[in-house]
């Protein structure tokens, strides 16, 4: 009787989350799945027809889908390695016993994380403007002004640099991981003759590999979902020569510019499946390099 009473109260406390999940996650997902099988157009909501897999076939033949996916993959290859190496390096520096003012540096590196995306994009536009402070500095040292957002060759490096402003959260997580590594391991390695570089690769990296893996998964999924900054910087367009036409930007244009909500739903589900596959591959390969203390 008591067990049934506890189960009832458990369901009562879970019910707000369950209702919210059904209304705001599961419901919209199932609705978009249905839309992907129709020709639903926001401009003609009363003339919806079931067309089966026609949207999926069109997606496979749409050159913009391939182009936007390639742009997204390029950004992933740029941003993910740099977005992991930089915060790891900062975490190592902040973990050093010889650094003064650690709390101040942690705050300074994390502060940009709290700037809203719209405000951050406006700041980046002003900073990288041909007459902005960054190009003024480049002119002063003799390199010359570089308009990274207008040059198709520099779009990916420029957006990657912009993304470095948001590494504060990753840095904090990696710093927390480094602080959890037992000091005895480093002391034993020093006695055995290991230098700092060897200790870093043989002790620090394996011990914080779960943290690195967690941030890797988030970074990969975040790269596939990249949208806000590119949308604001290029006013919803694809940038020079479509070099900033990210997959999610193309999806947005199909749904809310051309009103092809059925086709946009197809693109959304295709991205969902792609993210699931990539995540499964990452988890499958993690067994080879992610170390869990106390694991097999």
Automatic annotation (TrEMBL):
Gene Ontology cellular-component terms listed: plasma membrane
Topology within the bilayer: Multi-pass membrane protein
GO biological process, one term: transmembrane transport
Keywords for the protein's UniProt record, in alphabetical order: Cell membrane, Membrane, Transmembrane, Transmembrane helix, Transport
Pfam families with a match to the protein in the record: BPD_transp_1
Keyword Transport: yes
Superkingdom field: Bacteria
Membrane-crossing segments per the record: 12-35, 75-95, 107-127, 154-175, 211-234, 256-283
Domain ABC transmembrane type-1: start-end pairs: 69-282
UniProt-annotated location(s): Cell membrane
Keyword Transmembrane helix: yes
Family per record: Belongs to the binding-protein-dependent transport system permease family.
Name of the protein: ABC transporter
Biological source species: Deinococcus cellulosilyticus (strain DSM 18568 / NBRC 106333 / KACC 11606 / 5516J-15)
């Amino acid at each position: 009787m008591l067990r049934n009473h506890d189960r009832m109260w458990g369901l009562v406390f879970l019910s707000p989350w369950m209702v919210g999940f059904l209304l705001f996650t599961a419901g919209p997902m199932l609705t978009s799945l249905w839309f992907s099988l129709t020709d639903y157009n926001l401009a003609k909501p009363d003339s919806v027809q079931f067309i089966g897999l026609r949207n999926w076939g069109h997606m496979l033949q749409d050159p913009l889908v391939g182009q936007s996916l390639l742009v997204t993959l390029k950004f992933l290859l740029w941003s993910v390695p740099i977005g992991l190496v930089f915060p790891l390096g900062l975490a190592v520096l902040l973990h050093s016993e010889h650094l003064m003012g650690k709390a101040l540096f942690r705050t300074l590196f994390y502060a940009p994380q709290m700037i809203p995306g719209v405000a951050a994009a406006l700041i980046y536009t002003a900073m990288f403007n041909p007459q902005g402070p960054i190009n003024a500095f480049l002119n002063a040292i003799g390199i010359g002004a570089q308009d990274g957002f207008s040059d198709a060759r520099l779009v990916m490096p420029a957006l990657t640099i912009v993304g470095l402003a948001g590494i504060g959260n990753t840095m904090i997580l990696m710093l927390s991981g480094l602080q959890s590594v037992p000091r005895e391991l480093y002391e034993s390695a020093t006695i055995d003759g290991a230098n700092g570089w060897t200790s870093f690769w043989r002790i620090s990296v394996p011990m914080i590999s779960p943290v690195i893996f967690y941030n890797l998964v988030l970074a990969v999924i975040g790269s596939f979902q990249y949208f806000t900054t590119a949308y604001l910087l290029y006013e919803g367009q694809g940038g020079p020569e479509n070099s900033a036409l990210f997959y999610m930007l193309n999806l947005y244009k199909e749904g809310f510019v051309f009103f092809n909500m059925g086709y946009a739903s197809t693109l959304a589900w295709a991205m969902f499946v792609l993210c699931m596959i990539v995540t499964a591959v990452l988890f499958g390969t993690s067994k080879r390099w992610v170390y869990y203390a106390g694991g097999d």
